[in-house]
Specification:
Number of strands: 18
Radius of gyration: 21 Å
CATH superfamily: FAD/NAD(P)-binding domain
CATH architecture: 3-Layer(bba) Sandwich
Distance between the termini: 14 Å
């Protein structure tokens, strides 16, 4: 059995690992150039962040990483952030929250790392013999009762038993097989951006803490990666949803009133930083005949909800185990895809609903709402908050049967 997996990010690589474990042959097609590990000097020079910003990785994806034998490798990339400092626009600290309680409540099953480092870990685990092709995408998909035929952008035609769309919110597979993105996009009213910077003085001042500058309608996070480099991630309300032609100019305009180190960092912002809409993807059915979606292509929960990477890794495990147990029958493959969706989709729907509820608090639109959030954050920094936080750190149950496949 052979699967073509479009998307060489977290979801696609995890899916390839589980399918190969089940005896499938896999080909991963990725539109980006290949990364070779570590903090890419070229990326640091240009300010681009391969694979996105920092994530707190825990929950069901952590369980899957552990089942893959990759726990220690993932923890090798832990940024070991010791706390979060919220700051007013002039840099004055308003709230500090330590991470000790969160890690304790999670039983140590939480790691803060760059998305790109999780991706690199999965790529290394897949092995050097895996068929991973970079700089390619799809131009055509045709299905028949026995499988699927695809044409790649280099003109290559490939045949497989299954096509997996793991190519994110802007999925080409979803566009070709399920329809245009507009049918499935749920915009949450904000834009997000991220870029790297080289500044030893700022990196030293940041220490091992995440610093969040907040003001009505905007917030900016800054954290250190090495002794000389750091990263920013920014989020601001944008009701019209249209992406700017010049993202750097838009960032400098939107964050012009914020102080501390931010003007210095915005002056170093690259011409084309990572910049995108904050959105969810809601697809009524995740498979169609011999094509299935996984990760943000069908289950994007948005940064408002968090755990997107964790859910993608866990969903890949469920998909891989179900297909591994299905054998080679076309009818059984269809049943496996249905079981995968039945197990994962209810959890994703719950997470997406939570993200929509959180949207107005993630970036408060008014001073009043921002002050209320600040008070809630102060309460969250007290020991009494442990009991409140515990349910949020609990792993949603995707019910993967680890005895199968």
């Amino acid at each position: 059995m052979r699967a073509i997996i479009v998307g060489g990010g977290i979801a696609g690589l995890a899916t390839a690992w589980w399918l190969r474990r089940a005896g499938w042959e896999t080909t991963v097609v990725e539109h980006r150039a290949e990364r070779h590990g570590g903090l890419d000097p070229d990326a640091t020079a240009t300010g681009t962040i391969p694979g996105g910003y920092v994530i707190d990785f825990f929950g069901p994806g952590y369980d899957s990483i552990e089942a893959m034998g990759l726990r220690d490798r993932v923890h090798d990339h832990d940024l070991r952030l010791e706390g979060i400092q919220y700051r007013a626009t002039n840099g004055r600290r308003t709230v500090r929250m330590g991470t000790d309680a969160t890690r304790r409540l999670g039983g140590g099953r939480l790691v803060s790392l760059l998305r790109g480092d999780l991706e690199l870990t999965l790529r290394e685990a897949l092995g050097s013999d895996a068929d991973v092709r970079h700089g390619l995408s799809l131009t055509r998909v045709e299905q028949d009762p026995d499988g699927v035929t695809v044409e790649l952008t280099d003109g290559t035609v490939e045949r497989a038993d299954l096509l997996v769309g793991a190519d994110g919110t802007h999925s080409r597979v979803r566009e070709l097989v399920f329809g245009p993105k507009e049918r499935f996009r749920r915009y949450l009213g904000a834009h997000t951006a991220a870029f790297l910077f080289e500044d030893p003085e700022v990196a030293d001042a940041l220490g091992r803490e995440l610093h969040m500058l907040e003001a009505p309608r905007v917030q900016a996070g800054v954290y250190r990666l090495t002794e000389t480099t750091g990263a920013t991630f920014l989020c601001h309300l944008a009701p019209d949803g249209s992406l700017p032609a010049d993202p750097r100019a838009r960032l400098r305009e939107v964050y012009a009133g914020m102080g501390w180190y931010l003007p210095r960092l915005l002056a170093a912002c690259p011409p084309r930083p990572f910049y995108d809409e904050v959105e969810q993807i809601v697809v009524p059915a995740w498979s169609r005949s011999r094509v299935v979606l996984v990760g943000d292509a069908c289950q994007a929960v948005s940064l408002m909800a968090g755990q997107g990477a964790s859910m993608a890794v866990a969903a890949a495990e469920v998909l891989g185990r179900e297909l591994g147990a299905a054998g080679t029958s076309g009818a059984r493959i269809g049943s496996a895809l249905s079981r995968y969706e039945e197990r994962v989709k209810p959890v994703i729907e719950t997470k997406q609903a939570a993200g929509r509820r959180m949207a107005r608090w993630f970036v408060p639109a008014s001073t009043t709402r921002m002050l209320v959030r600040r008070q809630l954050l102060r309460l969250a920094a007290t020991p009494l908050a442990d009991r409140v936080a515990r349910p949020f750190l609990a792993s949603p149950k995707l019910a993967p049967d680890r005895q199968r496949a």
